[in-house]
Amino acid sequence: MTIHSLQNFYVDQLKDVYSAEKQLLEALPKMANAAFDADLKLAFQNHADQTANHLATVQAILNGLNQNPGSKKCKAMEGLVAEASEIINLQGDPQAKDAALILAAQKVEHYEIATYGGLRTYAKALGFSDVVPQLQGILDEEYDCDQQLDDLAMGGFLTEGLNEKATA
After folding, report:
1. DSSP tag of 89
2. What gap in Å lies between CA 150 and CA 96, rounded to an integer?
């Protein structure tokens, strides 16, 4: 790819995140099945539902630009999903495995936060104000998911987090 303008880079990154969301949508049910903790399973299942909505939103934004997502493959998500797959296949202590799954999921969330933050900023700069709220909404959901994973890992008020259970 050659960067001719911010707009062509923006479109390229929309296609990239479309691929990322598609890959994640395939990985999340596997992560949910591998999780031991019921709350973690539910978090992965809920994020799969959100991810399906994110995929549809990105598709709609691309459609509005008369762009097709094409066959672009997000290499970053491919690596993150491969890392999560390695964890899914691990044997051993279920709490320790849940802690490892949380870290893998948070790596994904941080990637998505960076991507959607950039896309929102580019949309503003390019005058695509109609999609800024949609991108901000996805960004907010990614932050919320990351916080939920933090809460599961660290525990809440008067409760042990999965990280602490994994050390036992």
Report:
1. T
2. 15
**What are the residues whose beta carbons fall under 8 Å from the beta carbon of 63, sequence distance 6 or more?**
none
DSSP state of 92: S
Q: How far apart are CA 33 and CA 105, in angstroms?
A: 14
CA–CA separation, 84 and 101 (whole Å): 7
Ordered alpha helix ranges (H), 35-74: 38-64
**Separation CA 166–CA 168 (nearest Å):** 6
Domains of the chain (ranges; CATH) run 6-167 (1.20.1260.10)
Q: How do the pLDDT tens digits run along the chain, 168 residues long?
A: 688 899 999 999 999 999 999 999 999 999 999 999 999 999 999 999 999 999 999 999 999 999 999 899 999 999 999 999 999 999 988 988 999 999 999 999 999 999 999 999 999 999 999 999 999 999 999 999 999 999 888 875 335 655 555 555
Asked whether the CA dihedral 149, 52, 8, 130 is positive or negative, the reply is negative
Q: Position 145: which residue type?
A: C
Interhelix angle 94-126/132-154, rounded to 10 degrees, is 160
How is residue 120 written in tokens?
């929102």
